[in-house]
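Per reviewer request, we include the raw input and output of the structure prediction for the construct analysed in the revised manuscript.
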Amino acid sequence: MKTCVQAMIFDFDGTLAHLTLDFGVMRQRAMHAARAVADRSARTAHPFASGMSPTLPADDGRPMLEWLETAHRHMARICPVTADNMLRNARQAIEDVEVDAAGKGALFPWTRAMLDALREDGIATAVITRNCRKAVLAVFPDVLDYCACLLTREDVPQVKPHPDHLLRALAHTGTPPERSLMVGDHPMDIATGKAGGTLTAGVASGSTPHGLLAAEQPDFMARDCMDLYQQLRGGTCPTIR
């Protein structure tokens, strides 16, 4: 690589911290909360002029946050109040799972040291995550002592893989995408970086196997972020000077 990195944007869970979130449980709890609201509306369908009650669309397997937005739009055509209640209750169920998982979580042992080393190298850093702020701060309360910003899902209008999430973080660092590197443990992180015009790195420290990450063709592959840092510092054409 001839491009020298001036900023690194990190995912959080599975990238800087041990992955403790059970996404299957999170989806199950959120769906249960959403269905409970839909079922209550079905039992009182008579107030709706159409004679219909708001119903949930089928679970199409998309990420939960995106599916909930679709479900909200679908239900709002019949009853906006019920749709809003559904979305609020399902989001609360997601946050409850996230915060519970954070109580069992911890940073990787090298996370702070690596971020310190990047700062000494003059590399700006930031964290973007689909997780909630409360959960991230429970695990990494001093994150802003190490990074230019933390942007959780509450902080942005569109979460990754939409590139806006990444580009807002880059604005905090003052670094153009072509001089930046998006780092994460999930194919979504690599897709986010490509959409935002940055270099990309896959780290196999989360739940995605190395081979599946490599199949996304990131610019770099590493065991974890510390391994990635060592790769970027070394070699015949180091990407971090």
